[in-house]
Amino acid sequence: MPDFTDNLRPSQPDGPTTLARERAESNISPKELSEHLLSADGFLERQARILPIVQREPLFSKEKQQNLSRPERFKLGLARAKLLRRLKDQHQWSHDEYKMAEYLVDDVSPYFLHLEMFITTIREQASEAQRAEWMPLIESWKIVGAYAQTELGHGSNVRGLELEARWDSQAKEFILHSPTLTASKWWNGSLGRIANHAIVVAQLLLPKAGSVNEYVSHGPHPFIVQVRDMKTHLPLSGVVVGDIGAKYGYITMDNAYMLFDNFRIPHSAMLSRYSSVDPNTGIYTKPEQPALVYGSLTYVRAQIVHHARLVLARAVTVAVRYTAIRRQFQDRDGDKRGPEMAVLDYPTVQIRILPLLATAFALHYTGQSMRATYQSTREAVEQGDFRSLAHMHSMSSGLKSLCTMLAADGVETCRRAMGGHGFGGGSGLIQLNNDYLSKPTVEGDNWMITQQVAAYLIKKMTTAVDSLASPATDKTDAVFKEFVRNRGNGFSKAGLDVLASDRDVVQSFELRAAALTYDVYEQRVLKKQSWNSLLIQLHKLSKVTAFFESLSTDDFLSDSTKTVMWDLFRLFAFHTMETEAFEFFCCNAVTKSDLDRLPARVQELMSRIRPHAVNLVDSWMIPDYLLDRYKNYSFISIEDP
Amino acid sequence: MPSPPPDWVKALTPAGPQGSELLAQERAQSNINVDKLSELLHTKEFLQRQDQLVKLLQPEKVFDKSQNHSLGRVERLQRSLAKAKRLQQLAEKHQWSMEELHAANELIGEPTPYGLHASMFLVTLREQGSPEQHKLFLERAAKYEIIGCYAQTELGHGSNVRGLETTATWNPDKKTFTIHSPTLTASKWWIGSLGRTANHAVVMAQLFIGGKNYGPHPFVVQVRDLETHQPLENVYVGDIGPKFGYNTMDNGFLLFNNVEIPHVNMLARFSRIDKETNKYIRPALPTLVYGTLTWVRSNIVLQSGGVLARGVTIATRYAAVRRQFQDRDADVNAGENQVLNYKMVQVRLLPLLASMYALHFTGRGMMRLYEENQQRMKAAASPGQDSRGAGPEELRAGADLLADLHATSCGLKALASTTAGEGLEVCRRACGGHGYSSYSGIGSYYADYLPTLTWEGDNYMLTQQVARYLLKSARAVLSGKSADNDTSRILRNYLDRREKGASFDILENDADIVDAFAWRTAHLTFEALKHRDAEKRSWNSLLVDFWRLSTAHSQYMIVRNFYEAVSSPNLSQSLDSDSKTIMHSLFRLYALHTLEREAAEFFSSGAVTVRQITLTRTVAVMKLLDEIRPHAIRLVDAWAIPDWQLDSSLGRSDGKVYEDLFHRASQQNPVNDLTFDPYPWNENVLKNQPGKSKL
After folding, report:
1. Which domains does chain A have, with CATH numbers?
2. What are A369-386's pLDDT values in tens digits?
3. How many beta carbons lie within 10 A of that of residue A199, not counting itself?
4. Active site residue: B26, B456, B601, B659, which one?
């Protein structure tokens, strides 16, 4: 029905006018930069091709989904997941194309665990015979699976799991049993209402040699178990399984609880590529390389690290465009006549958003180096070479912790920097915030997994100290040895000029990492201090190490864009230094006078980057459909870049 | 709801030791007198009232909380209105005071669609209406014959009230105003209780008389029909849709197409239009509004302690029940370690535990100062209507104090609400995976609290007001004309001692800690003054410095207020000496932890040495964590938040964390009523319901 509101327009200058001017003011080419960032594995081309296909499906319209109840929203999520899978057949999509469609639709898929952890675990941990049996069933979707490891009372500590798999040597079967309520499987995605099979991780109990009633635990092992009837989809007798209820986000995922009551499974259920039980003797064969048990976890972590850049880029895109359009108050020193000032011109807004813009690029390079390491390590392991596993494991833990924290906090910072409208459903950052905030705890609590990094680094430092005279074996070893040598002469060699030299910036971070490692090494190894009180310092340490790689990367773009990219690099580094000023100062990684000049330098960098902000976010090529911002209000109509 | 679990599930208990045993053990190892401490924090009267209210409200079905996290937006809003109505009925039946209604609202745990009627609408009518308008609007509003809201912010305009676009044009012939929205960005936006509930609104609009703009003024405008509840003609009003939180509130939008209202609808206590002469009459006492805002902000500071306490109570109790990994240095048979024993959990939770006490005492201190000053001003002004009759000395001192209080309240509001909001998120994450469950009780509470960081002045914007005040005070001190208040005192002290240097003994002497915070604030103030006055830098380029300055000043205020509270005779009389010692430890933890985090500013201002900071970090804070750790559970118990209000599986006072999580998941979760068809090839999402379940 037409009424007086039809003719109302936003006050001038409106959104499109403002953004057009912003884009014209910068000499950065979003096209060039986006190709540098996203074209390597065909991402951009894929996005352009898949977008119109998903956008024309009414089921994928995001307009009303925020109003739905949990059951209705879950049904919608499942209906979408089903349609996506059918579209995959219809368009003959590859796995990457299918993932692209899922990324654009932007729901956490209730099929996620079937497609990732379930299939990966079978692929990596099943024997040849088991793979031959299960892979066809999974790939043809004859069965739908999940991965059940964590329990109500047990998360990061896999050894603490309570679910038992007891070997019955008479029947030659395993008996799955939950002895307590805390033994209930918990949080297991895709299992609450959807899966009919699951990889179940349980303590393997085998009879003690020469005894009938006594059992010995051989630690947690994976079993493939059918949990629901293939016809009725109801839980099998002896299994209690359901959805754990509402969460902060992940509303379209059916995270599960699951209990077993003396539930029998055949000998062949135990995945036995690496370890197995002889069905006749009950004798256990150990895995050659225990770390491999966590192979799929490492893969998931690598994925999470690589994805973090797009999450943060999306939030920064919304925040930069909105704050460029949003006006508030007149400049106090101005003539107070023109329009109000764009919020993005306030340094208090810049200092929240622009370092995050720089961080999105830092995450990009970090994710790339993580991916490369994962690939090469996997190849080596397939060849039987396990030497690089420890490094990769430590790297994936540290980076997962750091990158998810940066992205999760960054999304929230961007949302809040938008003031009231960041709180509204039109910001497009609400579901992103809700869903992404699970990341700092899934696949290992961030604070817990930093211990793994620290343990690795202490070992490296111990080696460096003990073999000071011999030549360095790798980059970390070289930095540590250099540090230990200089430590003797009171860092007289330091004297880094971080404000003038980018190379010195990197060295300053190296110095700080080495200094923190040495502190911890000294207290742990030399002074035998209790592990517990060191954890705080360790957390900071792993944060530093993770950045090591990305800061050393310096093969950037062509000239015009490169200037701004270097500014982003410096902004990122100096902003970190400023935030952690004391630590940098203590180990002489920055001088007092440089430290005093840092705030002014940060502000200067921000004002140099500011004119390019809109083009820089455009380069991430996040489609409006994915941003899901206020489409229906012309005041913030943002054209596709 | 789902059918009950089979008997073998009912028979299961969590692996030992049980949560209840662990909490009992925690409570046994501390000798803090929880009741005494509760009374000190809340008063006996408050605690009794809270008990009575819980007993009255909890059994009522309308206040059931079990489905809050599963319902859709529309259903939640409907149920929330039902709750609001029932509360109002109870309030009338039991003749509740404002405090009682407020306490009841806190207990039911969500904002309701009556929220803005009960607060801003009534307050604005009372404070800004003339006696005639009280009769016409306030009396009916108080009886809920009309339901109202307060419509200030617009789609394109938030903190800057002067930028509002809605106009109110005076028609000298008809003696009416025309309310109009000239653009889309002029739409009122975010207006609580307006979306679906209110039929009246106090609308802030730019007053135009004879083509001249007199700035924003408040007008009472009817927006919906009292019979049909449909929008009046030329009024376009509705709900703005789902939000990050606050989804039980109908925040609204509102547009006017030349709507005419009578002369009497402009709230006229302070400024008005003379109907005969068409002349604008200026506000008599602009500073009165100043006072109200100060009060509102001080209240936010006081409440922020309680808000944070909810998150800390939940996370601390759960960290005592949850066990993970064995201590690496302990005996292998010791079993898993309570998470609360990990230093990295302590260093996240215990400083927040200290902060909630710090914020509470600071809010208390602010409120007391405010009340005292109001009394003083009133006494000084009382001799007659003409305030010139008062003694100038008295008034001057009162005004100095109010100026100080006002600026202080801006900065503290920003710091306190940010500390509470971000603290809740830290608590949620400290709960690990289960913190992500809605049943943790933290996530939705955080989402509902977050608007506080923006309203009553955006936290970043507010810091400018503090900086402006501090610069002004510093200029006055330099010219020898400083005011008689604490801010001027610390600035003068700094100037007097600057040559000699600071040398505060922060590790041994509590009063020196307060002085170190004052020193850093004074140092930053004079630095900022140098940038602005000597180097002539633009205001805009200094905003980040101002924000840091305001934060430093507010941290000083909290440290000072906390110190005064723990050293006060009131606290000495109320608590035994062991509890008093722990309160002092909490003070030191808050102050030294803050100092350590802001280390760079403390050493570059010369307040402390690098060596002192290193010792603070590696020794003093660690020692304080050890001292406070055994008392953590009793310190949160003392906050006396009822289980029903916490509404958290993880934070239950009886420690039955796992039983409750399992119960809610399996018995209160409507998703488990549905059996799905999992296969992609079947378009139906539900099993055995052809057609019907298709989306």
Report:
1. 27-107 (1.10.540.10), 116-287 (2.40.110.10), 296-462+500-625 (1.20.140.10)
2. 778 888 888 888 778 777
3. 28
4. B456
